[in-house]
Amino acid sequence: MRWSKYFWYTLKEEPADAEAISHKLLLKGGFLSQVASGIYEYTPPALKVLRKIENIVRKEMDRSGAQEVLLSVLNPFELWKETGRWDLYGRELFKLQDRHGREYCLGPTHEEEITDLFRRFINSYKALPLILYQIQVKFRDEKRPRFGLIRSREFLMKDAYSFDEDEFSAMISYESMKFAYERIFKKLKLNTLLVEASVGAIGGKMSHEFVILTDYGEAKVAFCENCGYSANAEIVPLPKHREETEEEKPMEKVYTPNTTTIAMLSDYLKVPAYKILKALLYVKGNGERVMVLIRGDREVDEKKLEALFGTEDFRLASEEEIKQWLGTTKGFVGPFNLPEDIKVLWDNSTYGVKNMVVALNEPDYHYINVNPGRDIQYGEFVDVCEVEEGDPCPKCGGSLRVGKALELGHIFLLGTRYSEPMKALIKDRFGQEKPVVMGCYGIGISRCLSAIVEQYHDEKGIKFPTVVAPFELNIICVNTSDETQRSVAEGLYIKAMEMGLDVIYDDRDESPGFKFADAELCGFPYILVVGKKAKDGKVELWKRHTGERIDLAVEDALPYVKELIEKDKQ
């Protein structure tokens, strides 16, 4: 491909509204063009990378025995009503009507449709095990699209679904997909971490995520370097705080003017934040009110709270509601003198803490030396606390490490979550009719593009692994008006294509600096520079990943590069 004829236009300036390094580099490198918030167009070089990612995924899925299908983007609401997810999935579900008033959704995932496809054709265990997969555009109405392809509203995804006679067989399929995912990410050169995860809106009995650690990850994971335990932070259980042994002091009401934050109160009373009881009043969608009590030095994990409430439809009470219901203001909310219909939950972090500072629902006043059990009755203890660095590992008791993570793959053991309500039944080997046991397995294809850039870049730009690079080799003619340079570069370009190399020839009438900057920005693994040394029969090879630059004889350059490329792909 000649760059002068290729639809590839890089930007000179840094994109102003991009935060994640992958978002910045993919925009600046001319791989993406934004259509609207969370919606992007892929230019030819980006599509080449995506196709290479897809091919690796397809090869490993086919190797595992899975068969490719292509499901519809539009899903009729009747299917989602059968499983209850039409109402349960949440606001991320794009809903629409056709001209006849029939309701549909844009598929964010395809459990319902694949189950419907299965039940229309299969009713016997003899057709099992079966794994079907697709690579398809998906849609989610993200509340806050961020970081380019990391959290977008329209994205490319591979999703697979397994069907088995029983749970034992389903676990074999599950482990088969887990192994396939390990091979896929290894071939994509992505350093992933396998973590236990929540089943979330998909449902089921068990799930795992394949993630990479990055500052721009949307999730938080915890892992133990001592025993190897790893999990999404939202499912890491935290035990009750160890009961303190200090002497209980008399409770006392004190004046605490304008101390509306934990930090201000801690500074005013000269007490550590963990000695302060923080009260958060939540309102569910059905109007139920719940007060969550947690230590002042910890935060509530709303994903844990969502699992506890059984819904994502809840919010913090407003200033007006706090005043109306409790007669106080934000910062002075506490568990004293509450209306009877407000349920109180105590996070495990509050257990056994002595001589606490607690608000009493009166502006500018707090109690000090409050000892739950003596001065106020404990309620139900729950685990809704965010995991922090140094918290105890639930497996070995060691100290947990915590980091931001980007989910690339997610696998679920669904059980009969979909087959039972949708009556996807089979007759087993004993002639008994029962719901088929399912699993589902997703990989974010477009998100993998961002993940690769997150892991492979430097201050100059992207450093694509050879297996997914838009082009394996970039040949640069430094001065297109120099007949010798142009002749050598043209010859190398034609020969490279004959050798089967994936090559782009930068024949643009631009300055050398412009071409060099684009070559490093766009992430070509190997760059052949045809410059002044061409008159002496030499070219310069740049190895993007190592930064090494070496002179080669023109006739030796392409065989040497091909050998390097083949080695990279092993």
From TrEMBL:
Recorded domain comment: Consists of three domains: the N-terminal catalytic domain, the editing domain and the C-terminal anticodon-binding domain.
CDD domains with a match to the protein in the record: ProRS-INS (cd04334), ProRS_anticodon_short (cd00861), ProRS_core_prok (cd00779)
Catalytic activity: tRNA(Pro) + L-proline + ATP = L-prolyl-tRNA(Pro) + AMP + diphosphate
Gene: proS
EC number: 6.1.1.15
Assembly: Homodimer.
Gene3D superfamilies attached to this UniProt entry: Anticodon-binding domain (3.40.50.800), Bira Bifunctional Protein, Domain 2 (3.30.930.10)
Coiled coil: none
Species in which this protein is naturally found: Thermocrinis ruber
A single MF term (Gene Ontology): proline-tRNA ligase activity
Function: Catalyzes the attachment of proline to tRNA(Pro) in a two-step reaction: proline is first activated by ATP to form Pro-AMP and then transferred to the acceptor end of tRNA(Pro). As ProRS can inadvertently accommodate and process non-cognate amino acids such as alanine and cysteine, to avoid such errors it has two additional distinct editing activities against alanine. One activity is designated as 'pretransfer' editing and involves the tRNA(Pro)-independent hydrolysis of activated Ala-AMP.
The keyword Transmembrane appears for this protein: no
The keyword Aminoacyl-tRNA synthetase is assigned to this record: yes
Keyword terms of this UniProt record: Aminoacyl-tRNA synthetase, ATP-binding, Cytoplasm, Ligase, Nucleotide-binding, Protein biosynthesis
Protein name, entry field: Proline--tRNA ligase
GO cellular component terms attached to this protein's record: cytosol
Principal place of residence: cytoplasm
Family: Belongs to the class-II aminoacyl-tRNA synthetase family. ProS type 1 subfamily.
Broad class of enzyme this protein falls into: ligase
Aminoacyl-transfer RNA synthetases class-II family profile domain: residues covered: 34-465
Pfam families membership: HGTP_anticodon (PF03129), tRNA-synt_2b (PF00587), tRNA_edit (PF04073)
SUPFAM superfamilies: Class II aaRS ABD-related, Class II aaRS and biotin synthetases, YbaK/ProRS associated domain
Top-level taxon in the UniProt lineage: Bacteria
Subcellular location: Cytoplasm
GO biological process, one term: prolyl-tRNA aminoacylation
